[in-house]
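Recap quiz, item 2
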Amino acid sequence: MTDPALRFHQLAKRYGDTSVLQGVDLEVAPGECVALVGVNGAGKTSLMKCLLDFCALDGGSITIFGQDHRQPAARAPLGFLPERFIPPYYLTGAEFIQYILTLQGQAVEPAAVTAMVQALDLEVSALKRTVRSYSKGMTQKLGLAACLLAPKALYVLDEPTSGLDPKARALLKAQLLARRAAGSALFFTSHLLADVDELCDRMAILHDGRIRFAGTPAECRARYQADTLEQAFLRCIA
Ligand SMILES: Nc1ncnc2c1ncn2[C@@H]1O[C@H](COP(=O)(O)OP(=O)(O)OP(=O)(O)O)[C@@H](O)[C@H]1O
């Protein structure tokens, strides 16, 4: 039997006395696209920080392709874009991409970099400028380009469309669909339910520390007898 790309089992996370995750169970299959949705403060970023081993778990376990998430080797097949993406301000865009790819032992192919940057509608000339001169959306595009340039079996993206204009959002969705078509699994958070509906095989709704719903967007609408995903989401968390 194939190991899931991701498996959260009874994941618990507290900050002091405040319990944020209280027994989260969720799986992402290899090649599957799953979105994690929830209100502000539901714990989505906390779950991702746990997955990346940026913080200790207070209970439960996480595996990445069957390996304990705390082992550095387990995270090798994973590409990650954090929610608040702040590249070192003194690097040029090109230097940042080179830095990220080199860290991962990945060759830097200028033609591939140019193609990816163009595919995300970031001006190629911007790569020569330091990132301190970038707008929020340009910075986000740079982070996405660096992340997606490394071929990975699993991409974990915290609010990947944050700050992107409608054109860039559409281009990013095309890139993500291409990754999925090539066999990569995708696990991302989003507040944009239209994007979730369009992109995902399955969605998971995190509320009050637990997964309230996991299934396809169509199943979500059916379960909550809603015409729209927004209505279904609101009924789920009511
Ligand atoms: N380092 C921390 N110390 C204390 N509390 C924290 C810390 N990080 C997050 N929290 C709290 O944990 C809860 C979950 O936060 P988290 O950032 O995981 O939510 P989120 O679902 O990603 O929210 P958003 O949609 O607004 O990005 C919030 O109440 C937040 O204040």
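The two ends are 37 Å apart (CA to CA).
The chain has two domains: 1-77+155-238, 88-151.
End of item.
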